[in-house]
Amino acid sequence: MTKLVSHMFTWLDGFISDSGGGLDWVPIDDELMRFGNEYFGEAEGVVFGRLVYEGFARVCPTIPSPPEME
To answer: Which residues contact 66 (CB under 8 A, 6 or more apart)?
Structure first.
């Protein structure tokens, strides 16, 4: 049986975006990218909401694949 795991960044008050609707407060750095690659690399599939999907769709063609994925 496959597990479904929810993963999201949230403020302590439960909000997921800043007052303008942005996600600039999420520290996207090398450490987070390593974590994400390992965490999601073990998944059988990933489900995104529309806004996250659209964000990934804009930048993914410009991100080089890690050597192990080529």
So the answer is: 37
pLDDT at position 70: 47
What confidence tier does 11 reach under pLDDT thresholds 50, 70, 90?
Answer: confident
In the block, tokens 């007052």 appear at 19
pLDDT in tens, 30-69: 888 888 888 888 888 778 788 778 877 887 777 666 565 5
Question: H or E element: which one contains 32?
Answer: helix 30-41
For residue 13, give the DSSP letter.
T
Query: 7: Cβ–Cβ under 8 A, 6 or more apart, which residues?
Result: 39
17 CB burial (10 A radius; 0-12, 13-18, 19+): middle
Q: Which amino acid is at 1?
A: M
